[in-house]
Amino acid sequence: MPDRRWILAVLATALLPVLAGCRRPAHHPAAPKRRSAGASASGAAPPSAPKDTAAARRAKAAAVAPPIPILMYHVIAAPPPHYPWWRLFVTPALFADQMAALQRAGYHAITLRQAYAVWTGRAPAPARPIVISFDDGYQSQYTAALPVLRRLGWPGLLNLQVGRIGVSGGLSRAQVRGLLAAGWEVADHTVTHPDLTTLTPAALVREVGGARRTLQRDFGIQVRFFCYPGGRYNATVLAAVRHAGFLGATTTWPGAAAPRIDGWWTLDRVRVDANESPARLLSALNWYAHHPPAPPPAAFPPAVRA
């Protein structure tokens, strides 16, 4: 059972009304009105830094650490004819070409946990680090993406929806274990992939913390990061993710991830769409590398104003 004080606290926070739908911004978005870089995701001013603590040292390291791009993939296959979400599909041949182009450009794939170690000053950054994330848990992530990354000696980040394990088109438990054995990292992507901003407090706790407990129990791993379904979050959702004890969380907001600007629980990613050529992907990464990221919105989609 969730802690009664936590449920009461979440009940006291009204869920913000949100816009229907979830469209991704373009690679080079016109910046909407955002919170200032010094403000937290909830809008509150950041507390003064401790004088000499481990948290203060991590904050100091993160303040000078470089942004690290986190690519966002879904299905590594050709889309079915007339499929409405065809942009979520990248063919295996194109994916292989994109990874080869990244390697030629000097990129080195790491896990999000390794990126966290870089950001907190616990490990040096490799040349041109990049995280390659895959959402939901599609079977093609094992059959098509894994062989390509294995040839390069690169890990992936699997944002795994618990409810997709073992269903048609989804990863089997054996395949998840195979990805883990290949050095991949698993992050929590909820149980049912809901719009978290619409849930009751109890349901929010189940989707955020319950999925993590299931993944840790079933696969004997530590799950340190969270990924918001559809990129949707608000102050209540952010509080639930922090309360669950994650080290950080990823969004669908475009940009290279930089905790000193994004905050640990609203890390940017770079969506890779269908038909995105290797040259265009490299161009987008180059653009982000030369344009300092701006803070993501305090809620996504933004609240409707009366």
Summarize the structure.
With 306 residues, the protein is α/β, with parallel strands linked by helices.
Q: What's the number of structural domains? A: 1
Overall structural class, as computed from helix and strand content, comes to alpha/beta
- Share of residues in helices: 25-40%
Topology order in helix (H) and strand (E) letters: HHEHEHEHEHEHEHEHEH
The CATH topology, please? TIM Barrel
Radius of gyration: 19 Å
The main sheet comes to:
8 strands, parallel
Determine the mean pLDDT.
84
Q: Would you state the CATH class?
A: Alpha Beta
**What's the end-to-end separation, in Å?**
37 Å
Indicate the low-confidence ranges by residue numbers. 1-50
**Could you say what the CATH architecture is?**
Alpha-Beta Barrel
Number of strands: 8
Write up what this structure looks like:
There is one protein chain. The relative contact order is 0.19. The chain is globular. Helix content is 35%, strand content 12%. Strand 7 (248-254), helix 9 and strand 8 (267-271) form a beta-alpha-beta unit. The chain is an alpha/beta fold. The chain has helices at residues 4-11, 54-64, 92-104, 112-119, 140-152, 173-181, 201-219, 235-244, 259-262, 278-289, and strands at 70-73, 108-109, 129-136, 157-160, 185-188, 225-227, 248-254, 267-271. The protein contains ten helices and eight strands. Strands 1, 2, 3, 4, 5, 6, 7 and 8 form an eight-stranded parallel beta sheet that branches. It has a single domain (65-289), classed as Glycoside hydrolase/deacetylase (TIM Barrel), CATH 3.20.20.370. Helix 3 (92-104) crosses helix 10 (278-289) and helix 7 (201-219) runs parallel beside helix 8.
